[in-house]
Write a structure and sequence with these properties.
- The chain is of the alpha/beta class and about 625 residues long.
- The protein is about 45% helix and about 10% strand.
- It is built from 25 helices and twelve strands.
- It has an eight-stranded parallel beta sheet. Strands 5-4-7-8 form a four-stranded antiparallel beta sheet.
- The termini are close together.
Length: about 625
């Protein structure tokens, strides 16, 4: 029996929960970025949002199966780039505002229903499960401008009072971000390095008292000239804050926690506003590796270590900014925060602007390069702590670390990230660390010292390495396990590509060793699984639940048996970041979770299975 959304009864959900508990799973989390949420009939504007009726419909389905939903970064994206990983750190994305709600009495009908219907009708992708980014980014702004004008005309005392309070409470970031919006209009582009006016590029970064006075006059000039646009920007953030809170409360009532995603990047808007806090002339990236012989030149700014902390160890200006960022994220997302590229907070790889991120062109680890002419002042280890026979990009180069050195590597984690979580009533287990790939010794040491929850992505298993950390038998309890993230092929494509291949055979051999321990004829299973992509896919999902990890995540393409890829790293264009869960997701065939959980229990061994014999029978009944 195939389990589809429509067939997930309360009994089925109850049995699934019992099986997850029996397997030691504390959290089962669904991963889907906000723009990928489905729409209800007649409400597809071109972009998804969990704040919509379609989003609430999905939350109701997820209730009873999942404990949480892992979202993507929530920041405002660039007009020319849909990637959520280059969004703003404080402002949320106005595309996540549910326009339909603004047409209702709840918002005093400030958005004309005729305009809303026109946006839906003219959506070029209304009949596909793809976003229409270039279309909706303009139409959404048009709709919100009309809604704002009607809001002002409405002059509702209660809403006005709430709006004024919102502006006051969020002034420290909201004023900067809305000013940037005005300057983008003034200069004809939202990419500040291309602004025509050089003063505008540095308005928040004066170098002298004379500049401070001159820039203040310019700010007053722009603020007056674009007062309406500035206030409208703040209005968008106000509406979004209300809708986000309502959605968070609704999800909580259904037993669902929201988990945020903090990207390693700073947006153009944030780089402009806080440029005095960044290390001049340096960018964040990745060193050369198997996938990129020249390294990855991300171009993201690097926080200046001297601005993170004061001499007495207290937080400096940059440290306070980061603390405010994480406090806001934990406050708005009681399920926690996923930190993208945790290496970037502990032992970042930096390179000179205009150069390649290669050691021979001056690149290195910001805190691990005591022999580097420019970076040595930030170094935590000494030259004696390094294996100098290794190149600076070798993850094992730092050969020895004292407890004090580990604390220095981890002080951003301790004083900013963990401290922010605790101050918002959460624990450090609410921090999900994206630590995929090879970790440097300092990063591994910090992860261990603070007992941080890292990720174990089973699709990344190197089948020739018995001790590979992503292999089922090596995955520890204190981690998050998943088969793939937003950057991976769906597990269905992974299995299809490995069918009848030598690499596929190696993966299959390991899976059979780990999951079919009590089977007498393992060779027959290997032969079958090597040639049967469905069997391989199913077994890879069984591995996810049979492993010891206490926390499990699953990406929406994997859960819904989709074959399309959400994002292909290193490429650009409309095919990335545009995939959505179809509006008719209720009728889609999903993975047979009861069967997979049953096989995961059996994979734990005959004694474990015997102890859960009754549960196995219940799982049989609901398949």
């Amino acid at each position: 029996m195939v389990c589809t959304v429509e067939k997930v009864s309360d009994k089925c959900k109850s049995v699934i929960k019992k099986a997850l508990k029996a397997l030691g799973k504390k959290n089962f989390v669904f991963i889907m970025h906000n723009g990928s949420f489905p729409s209800c009939s007649g409400e597809n504007t071109g972009f998804g949002t969990i704040n919509s009726n379609g989003g609430r419909k999905f939350i109701e389905y997820a209730s009873g199966i999942f404990d949480g939903i892992q979202m993507g970064p929530a920041g405002k994206t660039k007009s020319s780039d849909a990637s959520p990983y280059t969004g703003t750190i404080f402002s949320n994305n106005p595309l996540f505002i549910d326009l339909k709600e603004l047409t209702t009495s709840k918002w005093h009908n400030i958005l004309p229903i005729e305009l809303y219907n026109a946006i839906v009708a003219e959506n070029p992708n209304k009949d596909t499960n793809k976003t229409s980014y270039a279309y909706i980014i303009n139409r959404q702004h048009e709709a919100l401008m009309v809604a704002y004008e009607n809001f002002i005309k409405l002059n509702d005392l209660k809403l006005n009072s709430e709006f004024d309070l919102f502006k006051l409470e969020n002034k420290f970031w909201l004023d900067n971000d809305s000013l940037y919006e005005a300057l983008s209009i003034e200069n004809g582009t939202d990419y500040w390095p291309n602004w025509k006016n050089d003063i505008d590029k540095n308005l928040l970064n004066p170098k002298s008292n004379e500049e401070k006075l001159q820039y203040a006059q310019r700010i007053n000039e722009i603020s007056s000239k674009y007062s309406k646009e500035i206030d409208e920007y703040k209005f968008e953030q106000f509406v979004l804050s209300i809708q986000n809170r309502q959605t968070r409360d609704f999800a909580a009532s259904k037993g669902i926690k929201m988990i945020a995603d903090r990207q390693v990047a700073f947006s153009d808007r944030d780089t402009w506003a806080y440029q005095s806090l960044f290390l001049d002339g340096w960018c964040l990236g990745c060193p050369p590796d198997y996938f990129s012989k020249d390294g990855q030149a991300w171009g993201f700014p690097v926080i200046n270590p001297e601005k993170l902390y004061n001499d007495d160890g207290s937080l400096g200006e940059a440290g306070l900014l980061m603390k405010e960022l994480f406090k806001k994220m934990f406050k708005e997302n009681p399920g926690g925060v996923r930190i993208d590229h945790i290496v970037g907070l502990i032992d970042p790889w930096v390179y000179k602007k205009g150069k390649k991120p290669m050691p021979e062109q001056g690149a290195g680890r910001l805190y691990s390069s005591p022999e580097h002419d420019e970076l040595k002042k930030f170094a935590i280890p000494s030259v004696e702590d390094l294996d100098m026979s290794m190149t600076s990009d070798n993850e094992k180069r730092v050969k020895s670390l004292s407890d004090e050195q580990i604390k220095l590597y981890g002080r951003l984690i301790e004083k900013i990230v963990i401290a922010a979580a605790l101050e918002e009533g959460l624990t450090k287990d609410s921090i999900v660390c994206e630590d995929l790939g090879t970790l440097t010794n300092p990063v591994a040491a910090v992860m261990s010292k603070y007992e941080l929850l890292g990720m174990r992505l089973t699709q990344f298993t190197v089948p020739t390495e018995p001790s590979d950390p992503y292999r089922c038998k090596n995955i520890t309890e204190h981690s998050w396990a998943m088969v793939g993230t937003h950057d991976n092929k769906p597990i269905s494509l992974w299995a299809k590509n490995l069918k009848n291949t030598h690499e596929g055979y190696l993966h299959v051999k390991n899976l059979v060793e780990d999951l079919f321990k009590d089977e007498p004829d393992k060779d027959s299973i290997i032969v079958r699984m090597t040639a049967d992509e469905e069997f391989l896919k199913e077994t890879k999902l069984v591995e996810l639940f049979a492993c010891k990890a206490e926390n499990v995540q699953i990406f929406f393409t994997d859960f819904f048996n989709m074959s399309q890829t959400y994002n292909v790293p290193g490429t650009s264009g409309d095919r990335n970041w545009s995939l959505r869960l179809p509006d008719n997701f209720e009728s889609m065939e999903v993975i047979n979770l009861p069967l997979i959980l049953k096989k995961a229990i059996i994979a734990r061994g005959s004694e474990f299975a015997q102890n859960h014999k009754e549960l196995l029978n219940e799982l049989d009944e609901v398949q």
